[in-house]
Write a structure and sequence with these properties.
By secondary structure, this protein is mainly alpha-helical. It is built from 13 helices and four strands. The longest helix is centred in the middle third of the chain and has 41 residues. About 15% of the residues are buried.
Length: about 350
Amino acid sequence: MGLLRDDDGKTEDPTPTRLAEVQKRGDTPLSKELVQGGVLVIAAIALRWWGGWLIETLGALLRSNLQVDPGRRVDSIGAACQSLAHAATTVALPLGLLFVLLVGATLLFGYGQIGVHWAGEAVGWKLERVNPFTNFRRVLNPQSLARTAFAALKLLVLLLVLWLALGHRWPELLMLHERGVPAGAHEIADLVLSLLLWVGVVVFVLALGDFAWQRWDFLQRNKMTKQEVEDERKRSEGDPTIKQRQRRARNELLKQRMLTAVPKADVIVVNPTHFSVALRYDRKRDAAPTVVAKGQDEIALQIREIARQHGVPLMSDPPLARALYRAVKVGQAIPEKFYQAVATVLSHVYRLKGRTA
């Protein structure tokens, strides 16, 4: 997986369909380092803003509960519960805001990378997860080795940051006992917040590299062969051979239906060589003469043959035959611009048959 793997001809970028399939199995380019770094930075900033408020609240709570008042007696369970409820409500707001902020930051940096989707296959229990041979291969794959190398690099960088932050302050830290408890506590809190901020920033910056690596490795291990891309295209669009066969069968069915309507036509307007257009006009059902069949070349010849077999008259009018073939679909009434020409043809046919035009 990732680096140093035999790609087996997988040179094509994964399609959106392939990416959706692997994400359903729980395989996503999630950088956990980016989540950790982002949450650390948000926590450090939040504590910088709210730290004084939180410490003051906790300090006031401790002072009020540790102060000995001889005149106050807590000799009932109700009074003790009331005292605990007061303590809980006092610290609930600052701690609740901090908790909500950190949870929101976790969701933002997590789902912000991969989007919100349900990976049902990743939730179920699978036997290979407890198979020692499968887990052994998972530990020794290039992706795991890259994570180990990144963790070692992060540890070295964090040790360097701690040394730069604390190296010149050791004498001050060793003399804190001489400055009193409040001043010492303030100094330690300031140092802890500074360290938290620096560590968060460093981890976040390193995590940007891990984020890029996760994206690249995710695309590499899900690459596809040319045949896989072609097979997926066929599944999504349909096999061209099958679609062509279906189209041919559909056209043949439409052709047969059209030819069965030729005996019911009143006249076949033909160009003696290339075009045949069958017209029907029934005053009771048609508002205007209707094209019931038309064809070119071989189909035109079949229309003429069927018309001869059933005694349907053929009228040679090449310009009209070509115009009707191009302008009117089968089953449609002719446009008004053809009324005069078609009326002339039908009048001639009716005279031949002894009918009234």
